[in-house]
Amino acid sequence: MLSDEPDSTGEEENPESAGKKSNKRLPRALPLPPPPISDGVAPPGEKQESFGCFLPDRLPTLNALYESVGTNFDLSLDVKDPAAFTAILKISASFQATSRLWLCFPHWETAATWREHKQEFHLVDSPTQDLLTGQHERRAVQLSSAGFDAINMPEPSWTAGHVALFHRFGLRCLAWDAQQPRQID
Fold this sequence. Notes:
Layout: E1 21-22, E2 47-48, E3 54-55, H1 62-69, E4 75-78, H2 85-94, E5 101-105, H3 108-112, E6 122-125, H4 129-132, H5 136-145, E7 150-154, H6 160-168, E8 172-176, H7 181-184
Parallel strand pairs: 1-4, 4-5, 5-6, 6-7, 7-8
Antiparallel strand pairs: 2-3
C-alpha cells in the first residue's frame, strides 16, 4: 500500500525538511483494514502494522510527524489510496492542521468528492502527463468548478502558458521534481 520510492524533495539529505512533502500513501497508524497479502510476510526491511500496511521504520506516521515538528508548515501528501483520505483528514484535524494540508490525487473526479467533507484543506489534482495532454484548458475549467485549489505536475511539464492558463481559473501551480536552483528560480 505504501510507496517505497524516495521522496523527491531530498528529505534524506536534509533532515530539517523531513516530513514536509511526502510521497507516502498513508500514515502507519491509520486504522484501515489490511490489504490482501499473499504470504502474510512483510517485505525485507519493512515491518507490518496491525492493519497490514508496510512502512519502513525510517518514515514517521502522520501523528508522529505532527507531534515531533508541530504544525507550523504546509504539508503536501500524495494520496495513493482514496480509502486513506478520511483518516488523514481526521488526524490532521486533531492537530488543527487541516488548513495547511495539501492533498494530491491523480484522479480529479474521485478527489472532487472529498470536498463534501466541508473541512478546510487544499485539494490538488496531480494528473499523469499522458492524461492531460492537449486538455489543459478543459482540466482547468473542471478543477475550478469542482473546488480544487491547485494542480501538481512535474517541473519539466510546466510552461509559462500553462501557468497563465491555470492561474486564469484561480488555480495554483505546483511542480514536483524540482530540486535545482535553475528549476526553482
